[in-house]
């Protein structure tokens, strides 16, 4: 196939003349459309090497920021979470829905102009960029590893387990660290279980396929955790599935806050010493002050936000300024009343 001689091969498109590129393009996009999304394939050896690299990462409690280029542990998630590209925005647009000839032509032209090599990952990024689709991110395992280590936590509650970054970061510190992850999406839950089996980290690991707002109400009040570490869904910014147990079931943002976010935070802070949330304000059909609401709910329930923040930045010197950039992902830390 033509695509096998082009994709992931250095300079294969850029070295073509403009005329030759335009001649080749229709056949290439036809093959790509028929093939479907270009997933990265990893062997078990690749996965175990990635896992060992994460476990060997030095933890320095004086460093609370990481660069976005530090992707250790990400291969594991990409292998097991192939439905990642099915996540849609509030208009119902996803990489999956954009994968057609017309959009692929536009993406490949952009890719050829801006990149020397048509890597599969870069074609997907080009497809997203040229169609105005926001970037869906995976929480960095190294960030979770740093946070859990910083607070010397022995038990971690993740009420929105997601793609597995926080699970991996926590368990990379050892099977003696307990991790409880709640994940309502069945595909994602199955992916988390698959990761845990491949890496043999099932000891001290509890995964629950239920919505956080339901599970926390039913959980024995005597069960406590050292640390909550999570990243909640961004209301209608990222739609993970159409299952009726998703938090998007609530009709508007205010209802979502009242019926999902606020009950979850209240039930979390009853059970933990430290509450850590990766969140920011965002805009889709209108602006949603999600970060402001997370801070407000914590403070109304007796928590104090620490000055300490954990950041991931595209900068080569992440977090070098106190001003948070739009490209940064920040995990905010709240001390709960049990520690005051």
From TrEMBL:
Gene Ontology molecular function terms on file: DNA binding; site-specific DNA-methyltransferase (cytosine-N4-specific) activity
Keywords assigned by UniProt, alphabetized: Methyltransferase, Restriction system, S-adenosyl-L-methionine, Transferase
GO BP annotations listed: DNA restriction-modification system; methylation
InterPro entries named among the record's database cross-references: MeTrfase_CN4_CS, SAM-dependent_MTases_sf
EC number(s) per entry: 2.1.1.113
Reaction(s) catalysed (UniProt annotation): a 2'-deoxycytidine in DNA + S-adenosyl-L-methionine = an N(4)-methyl-2'-deoxycytidine in DNA + S-adenosyl-L-homocysteine + H(+)
Enzyme class: transferase
Family note: Belongs to the N(4)/N(6)-methyltransferase family. N(4) subfamily.
Protein's name in the database: site-specific DNA-methyltransferase (cytosine-N(4)-specific)
